[in-house]
Design brief:
Number of strands: 6
Strand content: over 45%
Number of helices: 1
């Protein structure tokens, strides 16, 4: 997804969505892409600030209530 390969991935508790760490460009634009698990089409993107994620995400996990946690 994007110019860089996904570094972390998680699946929603219901199996319908994939969450992938995404680098949009080499200019420090990072976030989480939301993909449809069946088609792998990107259906959403949540940008994150550089100060919150300057080293990237090593792991993404979805909690049973659907919250996404990155570390």
């Amino acid at each position: 997804v994007g110019e860089a390969t996904g570094r972390a991935i998680a699946i929603s508790p219901d199996g319908a969505r994939l969450y992938v760490w995404k680098q949009v460009s080499a200019t420090q634009s990072f976030g989480v892409a939301v993909l449809d698990a069946g088609s792998l089409a990107e259906i959403g993107y949540v940008p994150l600030s550089w100060t919150l994620c300057r080293n990237g995400a090593r792991d993404l996990v979805t909690a049973p209530d659907g919250r996404l946690v990155a570390s």
